[in-house]
Design brief:
The chain is mostly helical. Helices cover 77% and strands 0% of the residues. Helix 1 runs antiparallel to helix 10. The relative contact order is 0.17. One of its GO terms (cellular component) is plasma membrane.
Amino acid sequence: MIFSSVSSYVQNFINPIINISIIYFLPTYFQACKGASPIHGGIDILGLSLSLGPTLIVTGASITITKKYRQPLWLGWCFLTAAVGSMATLHADTPLSHSVVFSLLSGLGTGMLYSATYFPVLAPLPISENAHALAFFSFCRSFAAVWGVTVGTAVLQTQLTKRLPAEFLEQFPGGVELAYSAIPVIGTLSEPLQSQVQEAFAESIIVIWQVMTGICGIGIVASFFMKALPLHTQIDEKWGLEANGRASDEHTQASDFLETAN
């Protein structure tokens, strides 16, 4: 049964990597390739936010009613993998509507995964271990977000080094590490250099989505190790009692010491 918990921890670690990479690098695509401002680039991924929240609620409610958590996780991975894989088709001249649909689809996938990954962690464990399990669960989720930015940035910088025109790179002595500082300059470039730079950014970001699609594959494989275990219906009635008892004893000892001293 331990494989169910390990499987969920792996899925819980991978999901934020994908989600954070979408949040960071899809707006980068809009700014570099579509001439969007930072604010407008955030608005363009509104579909992700609009779909993620309701999906969280619906998924949690459905698991509560049906007591089944594997099906929502499998469906979530299908949605997320399809969304990230589809993003790998976004070129500089791709219609904006395509990316909006893909972000909406990714919100459905990540919403299901964020909501459902708790259950295969807790189902195999005694309820007395819930606090420890969820503490490590939260740590994995937070730590994974760092890797979403790190992996994506490493891929972007490496690919831009190969793809950006030399004429454009000469304008930035600091190299492509200044890629985000260079984005506002793209709109001032003349043709055909502007189109070449936009396509270089698009092709570089496509590699990010290809990498993330592969990482999604790890999540899908991990999900097959879950077992259909019954969910707990009781609570840990002894939770916190032992700690409260120790605190009470320490308080009594302190009071006795003060009375003796007086």
